Amino acid sequence: MARKSTTQQVLVSTIGAWFFGFLIFFPILWMVLASFKTELEAFAIPPSFLFFHWTTENYATVQERSDYFHHALNSVIIAGGSTLIALLIAIPAAWSMAFSPTKRTKDILLWMLSTKMMPPVGVLVPIYLIFKNFGLLDSRIGLVFILCLGNLPIVIWMLFTYFKEIPRDILEAARMDGATIGRELVYVLTPMAIPGLASTMLLNLILAWNEAFWTLNLSTSEAAPLTTFIASYSSPEGLFWAKLSAASTLAIAPILVLGWFSQKQLVRGLTFGAVK
Amino acid sequence: MGQITLQGVQKSFGPVHIIKGADLEIADGSFVVFVGPSGCGKTTLLRLIAGLEDVSGGKILIDGKNVVDTPPAKRGLSMVFQSYALYPHMSVRGNIGFGLKMAGLSKDETNRKVEAAAATLNLTPYLDRKPRELSGGQRQRVAIGRAIVREPKAFLFDEPLSNLDAALRVQMRIEVTRLQKQLGTTAIYVTHDQVEAMTMADKIVVLNGGKIEQYGSPLDLYEKPANLFVAGFIGSPKMNFVTGENALQRGAATIGVRPEHLKIERDGAGGWQGTIAVAEHLGSDTFLYVDAGPVGMLTARYIGELSLHAGDHVSLLPDPARIHRFDQSGNALRH
Ligand SMILES: Nc1ncnc2c1ncn2[C@@H]1O[C@H](COP(=O)(O)OP(=O)(O)O)[C@@H](O)[C@H]1O
Ligand SMILES: [Mg+2]
């Protein structure tokens, strides 16, 4: 079947794409706009879209009240650390399952994935007690640990899919060419696996950065990442919409920038290598 | 040197016996083709020799030394894969030179050898391209270049031409043969195509169901097939087999006559009588598919043009000196 697209079709689909893109992006835009309003204007009905008194005072207040950089640093450490450790565990695991599979490999993979099917709240109490007894509450180590475990199944699954795509013949060709296992890894495997590793890493970073259930429940101040920092604006003294928006904007900014610069890798990662 | 000997080589995957005891003597510098139907174990046998699979039993000797416990890299063989298996992230230069780099050759020497190999294979203009920027034939040449540059004891080819189109396949077939003769390096070549086997080989190994059916020169196999399988597999179109009365008269359970050894006579009286079902006129050859009643369907080949058509009556006279006789179990009976 020959597929020809007329100018008209292109126009319609372009408009459609922009429309849905805008629809999806709108909450983020709204949040950014609200962060530049005063608290009063943020609540105003009907809301003003662009013509309001622009102010940056929310950002100043937010930074003054709670140390943004302290939480941002925690986010970096927790997201980065959990991603790094997850990769260190997942690479050999996915590797061995992709290159020397056994009868049970598929079952193991499914079992790993099944652990993601239970709602996390189901294990909140035991995990909380374990954290308490080991003195891990409100510690970065504890959060790195729990986020790493939480994302491990997805990381392994993704890497497994990528590694499976590497043709065995090529590894055997390297072996025939006299490469030792170590050199095979350095010169052949790693370069071929880098796109897959990069997109897995990015996706995991984003998942860990945005993770809110465990970070909210297991940290309060010392180890609190940006998610906790945002949440602190929706509590005791009532809802401060503009400040909450400012905090949220600050919290998502780094990951948004990272995502922007790595779109290509991300798309590949999210489609699990289905698109080549 | 590259003399390869197999002694009772066996391979099982779990409970499945794939190679059932192979004995073979491959002389240094010879071109040996493994041929057989798909799934008969050709690739497996080649991979056993390469060291990519471990034998379940028996010995593999390279220049007299048993290598069954030697890793592939140390066997001094190089392999051309069916899929080419080029390193996608390396240039042609990188691909061809990878083995030399692994062997610790200096950059200058590697470059010199890579360039010489590329020149032999007409790849010089493509040295800095990536495999994905090459055509199928060019990728094939790179794979061959990677094999020759290391000056191995033997080349192992696994159906290297099967992904090429027909015209290119014939051309590469000639090039590979010429290159092997020029280098004088032992070669083991796997194919399921008996024409490739007949045209390229010094000696052919016919495999069937994990067993070596016959080992000999192309003409040996054509003139003295050891059994029904080889007789039917080698030669195109296939040998005609006739059983019953006609075979018993000659003291055999089955007799076989090749299409080119049937003399075709219009309205003749002797031989096997029949009606032409299909006639193929190629100009250079004429193939007749003849329904010979109780004898069965027979194929006859005439060199040149023969103006006979479907429905015509013919008699087919087998050349008595070219009749192959087989016993009850399918083994050839010698006169
Ligand atoms: N790694 C393996 N595990 C199990 N069975 C295998 C394996 N490799 C090959 N086989 C089986 O061995 C038989 C011979 O395969 P192969 O040597 O590839 O045949 P050929 O190359 O002659 O077509 C086939 O039936 C195939 O299914
Ligand atoms: Mg094969």
Name its key features.
heterodimer; A: 276 residues; mainly alpha; MetI-like fold; 2 domains; 13 helices; 0% strand; globular; disordered C terminus; B: alpha+beta; Rossmann fold; OB fold (Dihydrolipoamide Acetyltransferase, E2P); five-stranded antiparallel sheet; 27% helix; binds adenosine-5'-diphosphate; binds magnesium ion; Transp-assoc_OB_typ2 (chain B); ATP-binding (chain B); Sugar ABC transporter ATP-binding protein (chain B); P-loop_NTPase (chain B)
Task: Give an overview in words.
The complex is a heterodimer of chains A (276) and B (335). Chain A is mainly α. Chain A has two domains: 7-59, no CATH class; 65-270, MetI-like fold (Orthogonal Bundle), CATH 1.10.3720. In chain A, 73% of the residues lie in helices and 0% in strands. In chain A, helix 3 (57-65) crosses helix 12 and helix 7 (140-165) packs across helix 9 (181-210). The two termini of chain A are 21 Å apart. With 335 residues, chain B is α+β, with helices and mostly antiparallel strands. Chain B folds into two domains: 4-231, Rossmann fold (3-Layer(aba) Sandwich); 238-333, OB fold (Dihydrolipoamide Acetyltransferase, E2P). Chain B is built from nine helices and 19 strands. In chain B, the strands form four sheets. A six-stranded mixed beta sheet of chain B has the order 6-7-8-3-9-10, with helices on both faces. Chain B has a five-stranded antiparallel beta sheet with strand order 13-17-14-15-16, with no helix packed on it. In chain B, strands 2-1-4-5 form a four-stranded antiparallel beta sheet, covered by helices on one side. In chain B, a hairpin with a 5-residue loop joins strand 15 and strand 16. Chain A binds chain B through residues 167, 169-170, 172-180, 183, 187-188, 191-192, and chain B through 50, 52, 71-73, 77-79, 81-83, 85-89, 98-99, 102-103, 146, 150. The structure holds adenosine-5'-diphosphate and magnesium ion.
